[in-house]
Design brief:
Keywords: ATP-binding, Cell membrane, Membrane, Nucleotide-binding, Translocase, Transport
Order of helices and strands: EEEHEEEHHHEHEHEEHHEEEEEEEEEEE
Radius of gyration: 25 Å
Number of domains: 2
Organism: Sphaerochaeta associata
CATH superfamily of the largest domain: P-loop containing nucleotide triphosphate hydrolases
Helix content: 10-25%
CATH topology of the largest domain: Rossmann fold
Pfam family, one: ABC_tran
CATH class of the largest domain: Alpha Beta
InterPro entries: AAA+_ATPase, ABC_transporter-like_ATP-bd, ABC_transporter-like_CS, ABC_transpr_MalK/UgpC-like, Mo/tungstate-bd_C_term_dom, NA-bd_OB-fold, P-loop_NTPase
Protein name: ABC transporter ATP-binding protein
Length: 373
């Protein structure tokens, strides 16, 4: 078990057809991360954001344009992949069809010339951990997707790596299998206590598995924090909208002042939301920004509510929750309710918002506008 540090890491592919290079040429742009021993870190972001490229640089499968990678205090930039003490579980199972499960799990150890008795000991030790002890004699063609992924992960950890890298290991599984395998991965990591870097575009996987999440967009680190931190205290509009299902409502607003009280107002809408007093030092009458609020923090008020009456645009009954969409001008505000009532389009409800749960973002840059300390 070891720590991992990425210092000012850059990756730029050769774009020979371009005359002038720009900052956008970098697949990974000045990435800094420090992962503690035994920590589970998820690299999260949309497709093409640079997370797999980062993983491949850690593994030694991609050259580094600039920057340094350390395992503990050892600089590994120029180390061959086989000398980095890293285990890698690919997105593709990449099993060897002529070999049975036992042979696939043991392959790396045999290639390194490990003694047969030691190989057998390690395979028999890892098989129950990955729940594949009954599959050792089976051929890959006879395995389900979930079973193949278990073998894939077993092949990575049998090397007893200091760092375990996992590149979207659940992407080929269906919904039910993904959920089951997610629980298995959590159980496994808790047991082997290996420093793990996990690449995914699925924020549910990252939130449920990781100790900390590094959210990346266009090769740039947006925020690095615990699931609670990135959910409750997003650094910018991108993080706020990427984390959470359904995503945070983010609406353009103009702040107006009436009788000493500030309100969020919205173009082509009668909806007005009271601005929390903690923002009074950073706003003024006529100030434009974006306000973010999560669907579960938008409430349907009772008959005596002073909330603004609004017409329902969409209603979805998902069994354990109901999702309601309401037009706010040209924007759609989503809310979640556990109310068992079945609403219809154009039903009128009164909206209330938990003001303490709102977030402000700069209308141009998307950066968080924070209240003064």
């Amino acid at each position: 078990m070891a720590g991992l540090t990425l210092e000012h890491l850059f990756k730029r592919y050769d774009n020979s057809g371009k005359k002038k290079r720009t900052v956008n040429d970098y697949a990974v742009n000045d990435l800094n991360l420090k992962c503690e021993q035994g920590e589970f870190v998820a690299l999260l972001g949309p497709s093409g954001c640079g997370k797999t490229t980062t993983l491949r640089m850690i593994a030694g499968l991609e050259d580094i344009t600039k920057g340094n990678i350390y395992i503990d205090d050892c600089l590994i930039n120029d180390l061959h992949p086989k000398d980095r003490k890293i285990g890698l579980a690919f997105e593709d199972y990449a099993m060897y069809p002529p070999l049975n499960v036992y042979g696939n799990v043991a392959f790396n150890l045999r290639a390194k010339g490990v003694d047969s008795a030691e190989i057998d000991r390690r395979v028999r030790e890892i098989a129950p951990l990955m729940q594949i002890e009954d599959l050792l004699e089976k051929m890959p063609v006879k395995l389900s997707g979930g079973q193949k992924q278990r073998v894939n992960i077993a092949r990575a950890i049998i090397r007893e790596p200091e760092i375990l890298l996992m590149d979207e290991p659940l992407s080929h599984l269906d919904g039910k299998a993904r959920q089951a395998m997610r629980i298995e991965i959590k159980r496994l990591i808790n047991k082997i206590k290996c420093t793990t870097i996990y690449v995914t575009h699925d924020q549910l996987e990252a939130m449920s598995l990781a100790d900390r999440i590094a959210i990346i967009n266009f090769g740039v680190l947006q925020q690095f924090g615990t699931p609670t931190e990135v959910y409750d205290d997003p650094a910018n509009e991108f993080v706020a909208s990427f984390i959470g299902e359904p995503p945070m409502n983010i609406l353009e607003t103009k702040i107006i002042k009436k009788e000493g009280v500030y309100f969020f107002s919205f173009e082509n809408s009668n909806l007005q939301i009271t601005v929390p007093r903690r923002y009074y030092d950073v706003i003024q009458d006529g100030f434009r920004c974006k306000v973010g609020v999560r669907p579960m923090d938008v409430l349907i008020g009772g008959e005596d509510s002073v909330g603004t009456p609004e017409h329902i645009a969409t209603f979805e009954n998902l069994g354990d929750e109901r999702r309601i969409g309401i037009h706010v001008g040209d924007m759609l505000l989503m809310l979640i309710t556990e109310d068992e009532r079945r609403y219809r389009r154009d039903d009128v409800v009164k909206l209330e918002v938990r003001g303490e749960k709102t977030h402000l973002f700069d209308i141009e840059t998307g950066e968080r506008i924070r209240e003064k300390a």
